[in-house]
Amino acid sequence: VANEGGKHWTVNEVRALIRIWSDKNIQQQLEGTVRNKRIFEQVAARLQKFGIDRDWKQCRTKYKNLKHEYKSVKSAQDSGGTSKSTKFFNELDAILGHTTMEQTSKSDNDESERPPEWTEAKSEKDSIG
């Protein structure tokens, strides 16, 4: 599997990437720049601490793909087609939907600590673009 991104990302690797991405500091840096190599080098270094060996390019590619996937699911939902989904939609919505995500950056157990408003109260916030 020697494609552009190297080996496939596991669910745990993606979760770790999303957890790092959910860090307010990282989000602010990513929002403020297009030249983001240094930011993704930080992300890759933090993944290393979880024992995940990815370089900055792999992190940036995965980030872009997740963002694209999220946006296409989001626009499908907004146009009434809710059948489309992505595995990490709730986590991504917490970041990209600009809801608060304090819990996830501190917890190791996303599933049990997901605030109820992530699932219920999305519709009001989503229309702000």
From TrEMBL:
Residues 7-95 form the Myb/SANT-like DNA-binding domain. Gene3D superfamilies: Homeodomain-like. InterPro entries: Myb_DNA-bind_4 (IPR044822). Residues 105-129 have a biased composition (Basic and acidic residues). It comes from the Eukaryota. Residues 99-129 are annotated as: Disordered. This is ZSC29 protein.
